[in-house]
Amino acid sequence: MTKTTPQKRYGMVIDIDRCDGCGACMVACSLENNVSVVPPEAGIHRGLTWIRVYSVTNEKEYPHSDTAYLPVSCQHCGNETPCVGVCPQSAVDVDPKNGIVSQIPERCMGCRYCMVACPYHARYFNWWDPVWPEGTEHLLNPGVTPRMRGVVEKCNFCHGRHHAAQERAASEGRSEIEPNEYQTACAEACPNGAITFGDLADKDSEVAKLAAGPESFQLLKTLGTGPKVYYLTQRGWVRDMAAKTPLPLDGQPDD
Amino acid sequence: MGFSVKRRDFLGLVGGGAVGAALSPAPWKGLDDIAIWTQNWSWKPRLPRGPVEVAFTHCGLCHAGCGLKVRSVGGSPVGVHGVPGHPLSAGFVCALGLAGRYLSYHPSRIVEPTIVGADGQRRGIPFKAAVRQLGDWLDDTRSGGGHGSVAILDNRPGRMRSLAYRKWLGALDGAHIKGLREDTPINRLRAMLDGPAPELGLDIARARTVLSFGAPVLEGLGSGEAGSQLRGRSDSDKPYIVQIETRPSRTARGADLWLRIAPGTETVLALGLANVLVSEGLYDKEIIAQQALDLDGPGGYRELVARFSPKKVSRITGIDAATIKKVARRFASGPAVVIPGVDPGGGPLSAEAQTAAFSLSLLNGDVGRPGGVVARRASGTTQLPREGRLADTVELADVPDGSIRLLIADGVAGGFAIPTSLLERKLNPSEGRVVSLAPFERSALHGADLVIPSTTPFESIDEAGVPIDAPVDSMGLTVPSMRAPDYSVDSLRVLSMVAKSSVVPTITELLRGRSDRIHAGERGSVFDPSKGESVPLTEFKTNGDLWRALTSGGLWTDASATFSCPPFRLMGANAAIRDRLHRALEQPSTADGWAHEITLMPFGWRDASGDGPLPPVMAKLFRETRLRLDSRFATICPKTAGDLGFVEGDKASIKTSLGSITVEVVLDPAVVDGVVHVAVGPSTEAFGDASRGKGDQPLDLPSCENDACWRVIPAKMLEVVS
Fold this sequence. Notes:
Helix content of chain B: 25-40%
Low-confidence stretches of chain B: 589-593
Order of helices and strands of chain A: EHEEHEEHEEHHEHEEH
Number of helices of chain A: 7
Oligomer: heterodimer
Mean pLDDT of chain B: 87
Strand order of the largest sheet of chain B: 5-4-19-18-17-6-7-16
Strand order of the largest sheet of chain A: 8-1-10-9
């Protein structure tokens, strides 16, 4: 009898009240996934950032003014994933075994329909050739291929790390990877422990417990896209902001 | 039946074919191919190849010395991770540490020795010629200079390398000058103690209250791990953090209580808190009765603080009297840590503010008790392998103006910016020369007469720092994970080549010597990063075993020390500081009658290298997200902007009597009315350049004439007409 592998549903919980906007998650992500250094003329709308930390305020006067930092990456939508349906090239793939939404740059032709369709503005277009300062290409992560100009890219929950963990498990005769064997770079790097990553389908996992908690919410939940990235906060105004369509975030990438 | 093709049939065939083709994958494939054909890269990305290795080291980019796990492929470090269980950093690595390896290839890296010629132009020279030139200048200075005419500016004093500097300077009657560090103010506390005091550290982890005067407690103060641990702990388990700061920093926003204080009034608030402690009898009466030397009597501390009633202090600081009383009572309820912060761009608090702040620690009996100020034993650091006189270590502010004829700047990254004007004032006006041993162009050293590039932290072995919040001494090494380029040279090698009367040991000799003395001390434990556990030092049979452990990324930590607080002076021993404390209620005068309409407060971002370059990936990300605005932006509150006629996005000129900078206006309602904040540090343009004109301009504006402070600068803010 063949042993069936239980279906996983990888997801993330981000505690906004712990995030202080240091940007370590963005730096770790960019280094892990060889996100290129675009030229300064890219401005704030045409850069590349698989996870982007937005600064949001409640627009009140001191002492009632408040600021929150909102890290936004691909939400890995689990229901009618918007970017999948609009891609004419089938360049967006949803792994049925774990729910990770991946971009296939070799298939992407750069039409950017997916960027228009994504309500979270979490997809980024390579407007320029990928460039790093001279001599630094040998510091890149050899496990992730740099993407070329003219294609869209986005967070894939550090797919390279997932494969590496699976290989390690297989080499040891295991069919399953342990929860602590696969962490995204952003979760690993967050100095405040604001990001928890894991299998939402495992009810005993920390990420599943946090996602099911009373302080948990999803961005633009009313759209019904079923994001697998959850957020936590005790601040009501942040929840209200996160429900607005479009998200009132400055500096989102151009469509 | 004949077959004929009519015009209509032909057109139908062509039209049908076109429609059919449009519905087929062919045009899409064509579009895709065209897209791919246009994807011609200007370079061929060569990802590293070769054997995979994992090594452990410590980060040398700041004094925190976080433990690192470095993954290398083909000899290139392709990934940096924290080390879980590390006694100091506990798995923490800041953004700068993650990307720090890219600094070795930063565009602002100096790749050859340079000298400023008689025509004022900088040109490259061979290494031997540069060393010969330094030797000639040294001879000139020795023949005509007095005490302190040769000086070394050491950005990370306290290392074995620093001792070698002091020995080298001792033979020249030179001065060893401390650069800015987070723990610089602790020396002010040591100066308040009557008699010799050990090295001191802050025991934040066990404190009940943290009273921070602008220190980045939640942003990576000290070991870096401290802030993350404080955020992660439950409310009942963590210290209550009171942040006393004008700027709405990340720590201010995340603290349990943010006291948004009026600019430059920290001294008044500290004395106001002392007033409550003394008047309500909340101080440690036993300690004060036995050890305080200046509490009572004419001009004593009690008389001083009596004039700082909460009501009066409230009018000056903007903090209401009830809050002052509440904070004082909370402070007195258990062990507390007071941290007079040093800002990476705004520099230190005034000497009297530091003294007033630390007087609270002494009042509360926190010096020498767990959860307060604790002692670290200096193990193996106070002796050099060879005998020799050591030059005294002095603060930059205490160096007489115009006294230095040859200033050699150590190459290590300090992370704290210093105004060029402050350095220039210490130089002899006619004969002062500056030699930089930094690996990068750095703003304060932009005019260095001679530059001899040194190695970056990932390329050379050195000592990692001991963070401010480490309660015990430690020794960890920055083990090289990259090969040092041929054009870089260790600073001690430069000194050994020009030394005429003393022998300068190599850095490896110095570190090995300390390791051997630690081994002989048989105290403390050694952390093995590959196993994530510590073992007692006594398990290391030979000194060679310990050295191998340290050069494999291990960390020795000392056993904790006990320390009884000696007699002390609550106002310090310095008469000038005591005088300034007594005059703290006087309104600050405006220099040179310069009528100012706004208060400029420069600041720096923690872990974004205040005076060094920024890795390109950080520059890019902060540019795109505007999470850390650089010196091109000025943050003011909407009311101030309205009063001055500005709206968000306007261009403005901030002027003082010394110059001006042009900035873009950014509005933030949390900024104090009448204050403008401008960051000092590497520009996020041009891949994070920190060289001249790239982020250092705000520090051209303060005069630093009174007490080497540049936190509060009277200025004007004018519209820029394009």
